[in-house]
Amino acid sequence: MATDAAADIIGAELSSVHLVNDAGDRLEPVSVADSVTRVFDELPTYDRSAPSGTRAHFAWEAFGADEPTHVRSVSKADRIAEETPAESVLFHPINGHGLFIMSSTNTDAFTETDVLLVEILANYLEAALDRVAREGTLRERQHRLELLHDATQELIRADSERAIADRIVEAAEEILGFSVVVVRFFDSDTAELVPVAESDQVADILPEREPFTADSGSLNWASFETAEVRVYDDIEDDTGAVDDGTGLRSLMVLPLGEHGTVSVGETTPDAFDSTDEFLARILATAAETALDEHGHERTLRENRDELRRQNERLEEFVSVVSHDLRNPLNVATGRMDLARDDCESEHFDAVERAHSRMEALIEDLLALAREGEAATDLTPVDLTSTVRECWTNVETGDASLVVDADRAILADERRIRQLFENLVRNAVEHGGDGVTVTVGGLDDGFFLEDDGVGIPADRRESVFEAGYSTSEEGTGFGLRIVKQVVTAHGWEIRACDGRDGGARFEVTGVTAADE
Fold first, then answer.
1. Residue 172 · residue 280 · CB < 8 Å
2. What's the pTM value of the predicted model, to 2 decimals?
3. What is the rounded CA–CA span in Å between residue 243 and residue 221?
4. How are beta strands 492-497 and 503-508 bridged, if at all?
5. What DSSP string describes 138-201?
6. How far apart are CA 176 and CA 414, in angstroms?
7. Which of 109, 314, 333, 508 could join 445 in a cystine, given CB atoms 3.0 to 4.6 angstroms apart?
């Protein structure tokens, strides 16, 4: 339409629109006036590499100019030595797209008004081409986004880090159109960015890829360390790039979180536009997510394997404790009873106490071994009745109990009984003769305290460690079991001073049954 308007309004019978091809090395005709086909045997195309004095060279000079080029008499112009049927020419550059060419077989065919009209037509043409380019860019971006979505699924499904790296390279080449692609993963053992996958053209352009370290001065390391995308229009512009002088010019480096980097490059400067960077960022984010997911799954597998091994050792331990230790203990207890029938000895009471202590140790060890899982059977549990029942299950002697906890909590009833029985036993064993044990409520939990000797401040964390005890009768596992029950419920426990100077244990983070 622009060429038709030029011919009809201005009388430029040889008008045409030439646009730059995709390779950027030729101006090709996309619209010509009908008379052009009658004058020229072949529609003219203008190669960028054409020598000086040719129409093509002159056209490229006009394309690169900031304003229209008007030649009133081509035959008298020194800049065009090549024969041409056009005597008057008016070249108007179309910003970034090509040339709007007005020409006539007559000398000085265009007036200043014609020049103004050509400018108006060129501006309309530029706006139309910009719109088409934008629409084409949007369609292309949408298409590549859809392909990237599919590639993301492939990244997630990859079964190894190396497979993820290969898919990154494949997507960068086939979807984003990058030719030089290198994926590096960070090796925490050597503190290096190690190349693990690269495109085929890397070997044709660059020397063999070596690992990068913090002191290598590489642009990859700078991007990895700062977690920032780095885009270099030309690495030969004093960037300090290690590949300076290899033929690589444009470079974009994208970090993959803690995993490494992906770098893409081209042999021409200014090769990346905003769309390239936008899509490359999406690919890098998808790759980082896939690597995170793979690392998470690997950790889960390792944890499951370790848990399986621990369970196997635990089952073996429980078997040893419950059978190989308890059976000889039962035999020893039976033999001692027979020995008491045969004779009297002051040593029997000591042996019986030793047997009782061994039995208590076995019970506590089995409780620790079998109760490591989280509490799942949560039901409303009344604190007052539960504490009083637990009190009757423990050898309390002349100790006394005070309960001021009129509330119900959500807990695993079997395991909360373990907690109270061990806290009561601990208070009786360590509190001294006639100790008073008090159980009361807190805003988000409960406490149990006694009026005994208390726990020194520097030992209040140690009391929950397995084997810790200051009593000859204690096994050292009771408070460890308490801690285990608290942790299984997701609660917190701390040891502190009681109101009367004894030991106080506060359990918090507890959910009331009516919440």
1. yes
2. 0.48
3. 14
4. antiparallel
5. HHHHHHHHHHHHHHHHHHHH-SSHHHHHHHHHHHHHHTT--SEEEEEEEETTTTEEEEEEE-TT
6. 61
7. 508
The number of residues in the chain equals 515
SS3 57: helix
What one-letter code names the amino acid at 7?
A
Give me the phi and psi of 16, to 5 degrees please. -160, 165
Q: Which of 494, 389, 399, 390 is nearest to 450 (CA)?
A: 399
Identity (one letter) of the amino acid at 443?
D
Rounded to 5 degrees, φ, ψ at 104 are -145, 155
CA atoms within 13 A on the CB side of 36: 23
Give the helix/strand (H/E) hosting 126: helix 112-157
- Looking at residue 481, the DSSP 8-state letter turns out to be H
To 10 degrees, the CA torsion angle through 120, 125, 130, 136? 170
Single-letter amino acid, residue 357: R
State the angle between helix axes of 161-174 and 112-157 in degrees (0 to 180), rounded to the nearest 10. 160
Contacts of 156 (CB under 8 A, 6+ apart): 289, 290, 293
Give the other-Cβ count within 10 Å of 77's Cβ.
12
Give Dmax over CA atoms of the chain in angstroms.
Answer: 144
Per-residue confidence of the chain (515 residues) as pLDDT tens digits?
Answer: 555 555 555 555 677 888 888 888 898 888 877 777 777 777 888 899 999 888 888 888 888 888 888 888 888 887 788 888 888 888 888 888 888 888 778 888 777 777 787 777 777 777 777 777 777 766 776 777 677 777 778 888 888 899 999 999 998 888 888 999 999 999 999 999 999 999 999 999 999 999 999 998 899 999 999 999 999 999 998 888 888 888 899 999 999 999 999 999 999 999 998 888 988 998 999 899 889 888 887 777 777 777 677 666 666 666 666 666 667 777 777 777 887 878 887 777 777 766 665 666 666 666 656 555 555 678 999 999 999 998 988 888 899 999 998 899 999 888 888 899 889 988 998 887 789 999 999 999 999 999 988 888 888 887 887 544 544 454 456 788 888 889 889 999 999 999 988 999 999 999 998 86
For 151, 399, 481, the CA distances from 287, given in Å and listed in that order, are: 10, 65, 45
> Residue 71 contacts by C-beta under 8 Å, 6 or more apart in sequence?
77, 79, 80, 88, 89, 90
How far apart CA 410 and CA 415 sit, in angstroms, is 12
Compute the distance between CA of residue 424 and CA of residue 433 in angstroms, rounded to an integer: 14
